[in-house]
Amino acid sequence: MHTDWDRCVRAVQSKDARFDGWFFTAVLTTRIYCRPSCPVVPPKPENMTFYPSAAACQQAGFRACKRCRPDTSPGSPAWNQRADLVARAMRLIADGVVDREGVPGLAARLGYSTRQIERQLVAELGAGPLALARAQRAQTARVLIETTALPMAEIAFAAGFSSIRTFNDTVREVFALAPSELRSRLPKKTVVAPGVLSLRLPFRAPLNPDNLFGHLAATAVPGVEEWREGAYRRTLRLPYGHGIVALTPKADHIACRLTLSDMRDLPVAISRCRRMLDLDADPVAVDDQLRADPVLAPLVDKAPGRRVPRTVDEAEFAVRAVLGQQVSTAAARTHAARLVTAHGEQVEDAEGGLTRLFPAPEALAALDPESLAMPRTRRTTFTTLVRQLAEGTLHLGVESDWEESRARLGTLPGFGPWTVDVIAMRALGDPDAFLPTDLGIRRAAQELGLPSTPAALTARAAAWRPWRAYAVQYLWATDSHPINFLPV
Fold first, then answer.
1. Which residue(s) pair with 248 in the sheet?
2. What is the average pLDDT value for the chain, to the nearest integer?
3. Phi first, then psi: what are they for 32, rounded to 5°?
């Protein structure tokens, strides 16, 4: 995108928010970089240059605009619609792997050399993994400065900086303000509760919250998830500790209230919440493609901007997909709640009714199969899955190669097309995953005059690629199932 100079100039001159996160505008005269929708008067075209990432702007010596705050743009949708090396690396960097394990750890997870990863990231994004992680640390530091009363020293280490000096230098370089100046810009009446962060998660409009929050609320596992006072709340298992998040849909953002046991988990928690709500999607591109089909067009026009509800924990979702095989949503919740009560770690929730983390694969692998109230064949499916997840022979993290993971899942006993595809859609994040065998999809297809047999429907859906997972959301919306409606 950033290499198409004319298109970028038009987007900046029209202040088109759809392109926020796709590229960044650097102004040669002021040495400031902005998002395309920056509210200030656009610079002259000859003074513009464009970069694919905030990190590339920072490496080139530009500082972030104080008006539009380009570092808070929605992420590029490319990283969630691609499964190549660069996209997988970007998902891992957002998940904090470079800060925790360094570039060698990133390379080990991806199965490439550090040199290969550096070369490909620089070629596409203009910055290597260290610079990209540094840009993320700067944004994390700003969030902590502006939303907590933590001392600057604690913020520095919570954001992932190795020293106070590096923290101070980076904040000054990126934002042209000292950390103390950033904090002094806050309203004097701002009240910050200890350990609680209140954030705004941006997204590209439009966003239809009905199916997104409706699905999460309807399938919520008691103790782990709940819908309370207009917010979806759940517990989070994080690298350094645990957290509780409350997510509330608003007109132009998602209000996010985070309680963390360790502030170092902030960037990971934000990344996983954004991923769960599919906030980095490009709804205009998706809807334009699906609207070209005369059958889907009325569904898209009625409620544009549907997202794919995903997950904060891929292993958890895979377990829940097995528990949901051939049973109702209520029965699947009951099975999951029993596991949570018996094996989930306890947490305290001062603001609601959350009590536990969903059990880790290691805990589930140690349970007695006879204690599972399910048919013997599904017990075998369940125990095989959790054992392989616990042993590390099956990986479903953000770094996963989608096709490789699909093939691996398909070899497990009891894993048919529906289970593989629903995990690909909601855990792996494949935007083209499709569920032609799903009863709700077949019922919707029949009602709309589409082919209802899996093979014929798959052939018909070829025109919806690469957005078939979004087509699934629109097809499900033709049913009166409660997952399609925002709770009240």
1. 255
2. 91
3. -115, 145
pLDDT at position 97: 94
Cβ 194 vs Cβ 188: under 8 Å: no
Which token pair is 474?
A: 């629109």
The answer to whether the bond into 206 is cis (omega within 30° of 0) is yes
- Tell me, rounded to whole angstroms, the distance of Cα 148 from its chain centroid: 24
65 among known catalytic residues:
no
Contacts of residue 400, Cβ cutoff 8 Å, sequence gap at least 6: 88, 314, 428
Quickly list DSSP for 92-137: HHHTTHHHHHHHHHHHHHHTS-HHHHHHHHHHHHSS-HHHHHHHHH
Q: What is the dihedral of CA 359, 407, 411, 312, to 10 degrees?
A: 10
User: Which residue shows structure tokens 């596991």?
Assistant: 339
pTM for the model stands at 0.90
User: Residue 72 has what pLDDT?
Assistant: 79
Q: In what order do the strands lie in the sheet with 225-228?
A: 196-201, 254-260, 242-249, 231-237, 225-228
Lowest mean pLDDT among 62-71, 140-149, 246-255: 140-149
288 as an active site residue: the answer is: no
First to last CA, the chain: 40
Q: Of 8, 20, 34, 273, which residue is the catalytic one?
A: 34
pLDDT in tens, 9-22: 999 999 988 889 88
Of 285, 216, 311, 273, nearest in space to 467 by CA: 285
Residue 229, pLDDT score: 93
The type of residue at 426 is: R
Q: Exposed/middle/buried for 424, CB within 10 Å: 0-12, 13-18, 19+?
A: buried
Of the candidates 71, 265, 421, 438, the residue annotated as catalytic is: 438
What's the one-letter identity of residue 291?
R
